[in-house]
Amino acid sequence: MVKRYLQVRTLDDVFALLGREFSCTPSVISVPLENAAGRVTAGPIFAKYSVPEIHLSAMDGIAVVSAETKEASEQHPIKLPRAARVNTGNVVPPEYDAVIMIEDVWEADGTYTIRKSASPWQHVRPAGEDLAESEMVMPSRHRIRPHEIGGLATYGITEVNVITVRIGLVPTGSELVAAGTRPMPGQVVESNTLMAKAMLEEVGATCTRYPFVEDTPEKIRDAIQKACCENDLVIVSAGSSAGTKDYTADVIAGLGEVLVHGIATKPGKPAIIGRVDKKPVIGLPGYPLSALTVIRELVLPVLKTYGIPVPRYRILKAQVTTALAKEIGSDEFVACTLGKVGSRWVISPQSKGAGVQMSAIRSNAYIRLPRESEGFNAGDLVDARLLVPVEEAESALLITGSHDPVIDYLADLLRPKGVSLISTHVGSMGGILALRKNECHAAPTHLLTDDGTYNSAYVKKYLPGTDVDLICVAQRQQGVVSRDGFLFADLPGRMFVNRQKGSGTRMLLDYELKKAGIDPASIPGYEREVTTHIAVALAVKSGEADAGLCVYSAAKALNLPFIPVASERYELAIRREHAADPRVMALIEAIRSPQFKTILEQLGGYETPETGIIRDGSH
Amino acid sequence: MVKRYLQVRTLDDVFALLGREFSCTPSVISVPLENAAGRVTAGPIFAKYSVPEIHLSAMDGIAVVSAETKEASEQHPIKLPRAARVNTGNVVPPEYDAVIMIEDVWEADGTYTIRKSASPWQHVRPAGEDLAESEMVMPSRHRIRPHEIGGLATYGITEVNVITVRIGLVPTGSELVAAGTRPMPGQVVESNTLMAKAMLEEVGATCTRYPFVEDTPEKIRDAIQKACCENDLVIVSAGSSAGTKDYTADVIAGLGEVLVHGIATKPGKPAIIGRVDKKPVIGLPGYPLSALTVIRELVLPVLKTYGIPVPRYRILKAQVTTALAKEIGSDEFVACTLGKVGSRWVISPQSKGAGVQMSAIRSNAYIRLPRESEGFNAGDLVDARLLVPVEEAESALLITGSHDPVIDYLADLLRPKGVSLISTHVGSMGGILALRKNECHAAPTHLLTDDGTYNSAYVKKYLPGTDVDLICVAQRQQGVVSRDGFLFADLPGRMFVNRQKGSGTRMLLDYELKKAGIDPASIPGYEREVTTHIAVALAVKSGEADAGLCVYSAAKALNLPFIPVASERYELAIRREHAADPRVMALIEAIRSPQFKTILEQLGGYETPETGIIRDGSH
Hints:
The structure is a homodimer.
Chain A (H helix, E strand, L loop, with lengths): L10 H11 L5 E6 L7 E2 L3 E2 L9 E2 L3 E4 L13 E2 L4 E3 L11 E4 L3 E4 L2 E4 L9 E2 L10 E3 L9 H7 L4 E6 L1 E6 L4 E2 L10 E2 L2 H12 L2 E4 L7 H14 L2 E5 L10 H8 L1 E5 L3 E2 L5 E5 L2 E6 L3 H18 L9 E6 L3 E2 L5 E11 L2 E6 L8 H5 L2 E5 L5 E2 L4 E6 L3 H5 L1 E6 L3 H10 L5 E6 L1 H10 L6 E3 L10 H7 L5 E15 L13 E4 L4 H13 L12 E2 L2 H9 L5 E5 H6 L4 E14 L6 H11 L1 H10 L2 E2 L6 E3 L3
Parallel strand pairs in A: 14-17, 14-18, 15-16, 18-22, 20-25, 23-26, 30-31, 34-35, 34-36
Antiparallel strand pairs in A: 1-13, 2-13, 3-12, 4-11, 5-7, 5-8, 6-10, 9-10, 19-21, 21-22, 23-29, 24-28, 25-26, 25-27, 27-29, 32-37, 33-36, 33-37, 33-38, 33-39
Helix pairs in contact in A: 1-6, 3-6, 4-5, 9-16
């Protein structure tokens, strides 16, 4: 019953196999010139006629017979016996062989006087100067750049034969619902073939998404067969793993042959490569980041063998913030955030959950670890592959620490100023440690000391001798979230959901419990840890817990009662050495802006009198 | 009558003025998610619900109560009292709090045995793990990358508000005909607004091309007025210069205000910036390369001020092959070809004719000379701005010398092999000199010595001590082209059109005239020089000349009689140091290929017995 993968193959093996087993011939389609930018020519393109076909004036001026101008000079202006007024682009009448610029001509009573002779053919664009009839404008397999559309029109081209690969995308799974439908428990929005279509059509493939296919071998077989008839290559989304309903491999084997089941990549291992009707059929894993990896690292390179140019990712050397151990044998791909702190490029691996699509949205770079690699240590220089233009990476403002929704709103205020705020959620202490290693521009933190003060003590302890400023983003209310409006004093005996150790909220809870004389052991679920405010609220909403401690915005987002417990200083710790960094200056300006005050008021749960105040966090 | 430009303004002045005079607010449009890749968000996007909304299994396996697995070990396998089979993505039923992977489970008679304990919440994707309802998915002004379409679908987004700039493109000129119409003498195919549309829509503008407008002030005024009503910005193509029919500036002045007439750029000087209905109206010069420059250097940066991100060109340091003198005061832009010869990036300015659209197609880079620059000397290191991906520039094979159409066919054979052949037409001697300076990979040449031999003598003279191979591309027929089938002996007394001094064809002519005892002075038009075979044929076809000397392909292209005079060795001179360069090896392979032989036969005018033979050109 438990199915196992066939022998897992390396990516290099897979490419060699594809080259061996398939002809990889693209389809040819005709597109109107207006839609040809970015497409790749199927064959050479020839000029339909010469450009220009006849001599034209290259200037505004007069057409003359050069021999009749020979005697002209400053000392000896001459009146021309004949001449014709021509504008740029006008035909030079056959009796003339040169043009004199209008600036050098004096007109009176319909005759022209000149003070300079004209050499034969001056300022004349000779016939065929640009290109002659039947000459080649561009060769096969040329990616048409937008500015070339003009030249093609000039040379008489209105339709272009371009290459493409027709790709059939077959989404399988009884749990699928279409984008726009709120999924019921157990349902999933079909997003992988939408993503595949966007990624593959960007480079010039022609994708057809087929209707969702229920998880029965018969229906999957029919769908794959139809897609193979109508396309050059077929991608079957999901069902490629070894679960009880993973029929893709069996169906492909029934229709043709499974060549590969399991590739040595992480994520992306459960991919399948099969052959049906001489065409490649690729089974895509279901996890979004696995699917993304297989599209980027396997399918796009395969399109290259069809002649579709796929842009290479730009690579920068960057210092990695955390170690990553890996087993030899698999190529591993790590989504990351990249930014320049001072003069140093710093790169941080993101959450590794293959279902976390936000990490694909947050990441602006990735690291590829080849299969012979054993990983890297913190501080190593690695190749960062850019997923954004380099100027966007240069504008990244790295905010690492405790998360609050207002950070996202600051990102929204900063983006129009050309600053890309990227926040990494590692809790307040994680932020302080990142600041100590100078791996971020600012660390949001709300760390409470026993004496009831915020943040400074931690900065002093962990960054001794470093000049650090603390900028108050907001005084933030933390409180009890519940379905029944519990007070803090009601917590004993209720099923609780806690935040992870080291988080500011956990410290606040322990501080308030101590103050109130409540024993944590009296609170069931005290050991159950989640990592965000909203996860606390969700656990309460779903009934998994009765109460938790979180910020107001999280309770409000899920429409749950919220009883304030304490107000805390949510501050940004910033090394003073970065105070003049334009990104940091823009951040502080945004915090102090009236728009930001309005946002805080609208969100609720914040007190704003101290917002934007800078305190000396060092000493 | 002669209009002058207003004070010419620098590009920097123009940008400052635009920022001062216009609000530059983009339009907001809603696009379906499927079309959102590449677009820029108008506002922040929030998750419509949490993902996941309920705890899901992260693995194929069984859902268990973690507390009931505590005792399990290799030595002490336990049978679970309860468990539920779950596949990846299935809901974890509320009574369970962990998942054990199917690989670690033994099933028999419907019960499960395990050998390892499970920690609470292992392999469970907690509710809200990815994102929670109401959290921000992406901020304003974020360019949506194709792979993000999946995440957006998952978070419930089906429509996205994106920014754009609505641009009205108004082509003016009574001489205009639509692409696809062969222009009569004096007519021009309207290509500039087609090019503008492709270039501007690539970054996210929304362009409307209006019907062609005749050259009368009234019609131009009506068209501009309509376009201003319907768009955020209007571009009027042509009529921006100072010719007798250049009404654009006057019309704009009548409708609103001309802010700038003439910008200090080369090409591109006659551009206009005006204001009508508070909207910018830009007058584009008529020459294609001037229009291209104004779009790239002025309009695209203006779109940036509307919030549209415009990719920066990648810059490489390259050694320039020829000097360029320039006057201080203008920014100058030079279309170039760029390639790597040995380990050195080499860049060559292209033809400067503003009407030569082929130079925009041939160029893969450009040089920007700022207004304080006085130009550069040959050999200077300059900033090459790439117009192709860097990997395409790395694949460039630089062929510099005498041109023949077969070189274009070789380009066509090589492109599918990943080699971009770029040919620069400078004549045989120009090629030999480029080879001497090691600025190209191969120099096509057909230089005849008095003793009747080809090429070797010139290589020996100009590259003494350098190992050079000569590869025969073809034995090529040169002959007399005429409308009446003249023989070589018929030339005296006929109006002739000649090739430039230093060209192989000119040398062949002189050699054959001497052999036949014909005095050049007996041939009228001997002094009239054009620079290509096809220009010779065009001059004959148009009646400007009665005869010329050219290759068969040029006569054939224009359906003119051709009487062979001599067969010459058209060879590639290649430094032996590049013999192992994969691009050069691919070139030689292409010359020797059966496909190339077939092409030569089909084109006609070539003898092929020696094609691909390598001779030692050095000694």
